[in-house]
Write a structure and sequence with these properties.
About 50% of the residues lie in helices and about 0% in strands. The protein folds into 2 domains: about 1-35, no CATH class; about 40-120, no CATH class. The two termini are about 50 Å apart. The chain is mainly α and about 160 residues long. The protein has helices at about 30, 45-60, 65, 70-85, 100-115, 130-145, 160; strands spanning about 70, 120.
Length: about 160
C-alpha cells in the first residue's frame, strides 16, 4: 500500500506533515474492502480440512455430500468423535493417518455447505434442557472457584501422561 498525503496538509514546526491520510494506491481496494475477508481464515485449516475431504473423496466419491442430502447428526457425531479423540490426547486418526482436527474441520465444512445448499436433513435432537441447564450452572462456576480459591491442587494434563 502506498501512503498518500492530502495536499492541504500543513507542515509542523519540525517540517513534518501533520495528520497523514492513508489511501489505497489501487482504487479497486475501496470496492474490495467491502467483500468477505477470506484471507482471514487460517490457510493451515484450509489445508488440513482439504486433506480430510480428499480422504472422504477417495472413500465415498467426489462431492458425495452434495449429490444427496446429509443428516446433521451424522456429521455432528463424527465431528464430536474427532474433537473428543483429540481432547483425549490422540493427534492422528487411526484410519486415515490424518490429524483428528482435519476430520473435524471437514465435518463442519460439510454441514455448512449442505446447509447453504438446502440439502441438510435437520435431524438434530429434540430440544431438552441443555440451554436452561447451562444458564443455571453458569453462576455456580465462580462460586465453586471462590470456594476453593485457597487450595492449590495438581491439575493433570497430557504432559503428565507422557
Amino acid at each position: 500500500m502506498t501512503v498518500f498525503y492530502r495536499p492541504d496538509m500543513e507542515e509542523t514546526p519540525a517540517g513534518l506533515l501533520s495528520e497523514p491520510q492513508v489511501m489505497p494506491s489501487n482504487p479497486k481496494q475501496f470496492y474490495g474492502d467491502t467483500k468477505i475477508p477470506l484471507h482471514l481464515f487460517p490457510t493451515t485449516a484450509i489445508a488440513l480440512g482439504s486433506m480430510a475431504l480428499l480422504d472422504g473423496r477417495e472413500k465415498y466419491g467426489t462431492d458425495n455430500y452434495r449429490a444427496s442430502p446429509v443428516e446433521v447428526m451424522t456429521y455432528v457425531g463424527a465431528a464430536l468423535r474427532h474433537l473428543l479423540s483429540y481432547a483425549e490426547g490422540r493427534d492422528t486418526d487411526e484410519d486415515s493417518g490424518l490429524p483428528e482436527l482435519a476430520h473435524a474441520l471437514a465435518c463442519l465444512a460439510i454441514l455448512v455447505d449442505a446447509g447453504y445448499a438446502g440439502s441438510l436433513i435437520d435431524n438434530r435432537k429434540f430440544p431438552g434442557g441443555f440451554h436452561k441447564a447451562m444458564a443455571e450452572m453458569r453462576p455456580l462456576v465462580q462460586k465453586i472457584k471462590d470456594t476453593h480459591a485457597k487450595k492449590n491442587p495438581k491439575h493433570y494434563t497430557i504432559q503428565d501422561a507422557r
